[in-house]
Specification:
With about 300 residues, the chain is an all-alpha fold. About 65% of the residues lie in helices and about 0% in strands. The longest helix is centred in the middle third of the chain and has 28 residues.
Length: about 300
């Protein structure tokens, strides 16, 4: 144990890599993918900032364990809204259903290859997938992704020209830019069009160009609404929020993101309570019910 503590970060990383279990073998020992992933990623639990938020090691461990149980639907709604900002020509419902399918695959589908059946209560999730529109969704996704990559490259160029980043950081940023990966994927996608008799090449190309054109607003910025910063904070802290007592506690937690847009503290709570109702957010901790309506004065 003392050797591990006194070793350098590079040595610890190498030791960690050698002790990682074989994921295929883990899949054979667990009933679903999420359970296998939990065991596989457990060595990283103490190294990932998203898990290590305190206030105690027990809280960090509880946060880690919660990630590998089925997620609530309101989290998917938040994710769908945020992804729609970056990929605006793809409907929110597409992202929502995609997240639901992934959730079922991770937590509900058995890893045993002989267990071919899916729980009846979960089949409706897969039934909602329309495979006929998948090529158009992929085309839009590629178009938006390319624009995001180009925007990142332009930001690097601008920072480097102003001397805000070093040549080393600039080259590192360019090297990590996935433009070549996207172009390779697009070439493979285009090659697939030529083999699919049902594909409509001009419609697909128009979808790509429309996505590129509508990725950002006229100022080259994402098309965000004032609620987006709040959504990001909620999504990043969803495990903590799930265990809150209600809208009042959540409003206090989100105060830095609210930026005083409401006229009073009561207004902020009302705003958050309405948001929670729309998302279908259910708090686990016990609390008094927050009344959105003013009660009549006593006589």
């Amino acid at each position: 144990m003392s050797d591990a503590i006194n070793s350098s970060p590079e040595q610890q990383e190498n030791q960690l890599e050698t002790t990682l279990p074989d994921f295929q073998e883990l899949m054979k020992k667990h009933r679903n993918i999420a359970s296998a992933l939990k065991v596989y990623l457990e060595p990283f639990c103490g190294r990932v900032a998203a898990f290590n938020q305190g206030p105690t090691p027990e809280a960090d461990r509880a946060r880690f364990d919660r990630i590998f149980r089925p997620w609530p639907k309101w989290v998917f709604r938040l994710g769908a809204d945020l992804w729609h900002v970056d990929y605006p020509t793809i409907d929110r419902e597409v992202f929502l259903e995609t997240f639901r399918v992934i959730n079922v695959m991770l937590h509900r589908c058995p890893t045993d290859p002989e267990a071919r059946t899916i729980p009846v209560s979960r089949k409706d999730v897969f039934d909602r997938v329309d495979f006929r529109v998948l090529p158009l969704i992929l085309a839009a996704f590629l178009g938006h992704s390319f624009e995001h990559v180009e925007s990142h490259r332009k930001q690097l160029d601008e920072k480097f020209s102003k001397g805000e980043i070093s040549k080393e950081d600039y080259e590192k940023g360019i090297k990590s830019n996935p433009s070549e990966t996207i172009e390779k994927t697009c070439r493979e996608f285009l090659a697939g069009w030529t083999k699919d008799e049902d594909a409509k090449p001009f419609e697909l190309m128009r979808t790509v160009e429309e996505a590129r054109r509508k990725t950002f607003d006229k100022n080259g910025l994402p098309k965000e609404t004032p609620l987006i910063p709040i959504y990001r904070a909620m999504l990043h802290n969803w495990v903590k929020i799930e265990n809150m007592s209600g809208p009042k506690e959540l409003a206090a937690f989100l105060t830095p993101q609210l930026k005083g847009n409401s006229k009073s503290a009561t207004g902020e709570i009302t705003r958050i309570a309405t948001l929670c109702s729309r998302l279908g957010l259910k708090f686990r901790a016990k609390s008094r019910t927050f009344d959105l309506h003013r009660r009549p004065a006593s006589v």
